[in-house]
Design goal:
By secondary structure, the protein is mainly alpha-helical. The chain has five helices and no strands. The chain has a domain at 10-106. α2 (25-48) runs parallel beside α4 and α3 crosses α4. The longest helix has 24 residues, at 25-48. The chain starts with 9 loop residues before the first helix and ends with a helix. The relative contact order is 0.14.
């Protein structure tokens, strides 16, 4: 999914925030505007790790939808479509969203299908060449690892 649209719709917002449905058109327009604004934070975080052109994993799509809704709910100060968040809850959601955006920006949280985050365990060792044939094998092994 490219970084050009929001990750959640007004109905997703209504479900996650336990709002009465169906939403009137004015509420829906307001909520969609906040979802668009909140998606900007997500686009910037994904773009910082070159994650806008990849295919999102299923879990990442759902995660981004929830994160999009929560950021929009924190931003939404209009009476229509506003979630009943206490100041403490609003603060907790801001902290949580900030931590998630930081994890995306630092690569700790990988959203792309088939990729792993920066904290995924990785182990390799240095191969040592004692003969001409071993050197050739080391070069062949390296080329095979770099070829997709």
């Amino acid at each position: 999914m490219a970084c050009d649209t929001r990750y959640a719709e007004a109905d997703d917002y209504a479900i996650l925030m336990c709002l009465d449905r169906p939403l009137c058109s004015e509420d829906e327009d307001t909520i969609e505007a906040y979802l668009d604004m909140a998606a900007g934070d997500l686009h910037v975080a994904r773009a910082s790790v070159d994650g806008c052109s990849c295919t999102l994993s299923t879990g990442a799509s759902i995660f981004l939808k929830i994160l999009n809704v929560r950021i929009a709910a924190v931003l939404n100060v209009c009476p229509c479509g506003r979630a009943n968040l206490s100041d403490a809850m609003r603060g907790a959601w801001i902290q949580w969203a900030t931590a998630q955006l930081d994890a995306i920006r630092t690569g700790k949280l990988e959203l792309c299908e088939g990729e792993t985050g920066s904290e995924y365990p990785f182990f390799t060792y240095a191969e040592q060449s004692l003969t001409v044939w071993a050197a050739e094998q080391i070069i062949t092994n390296r080329e095979m690892r770099l070829t997709p």
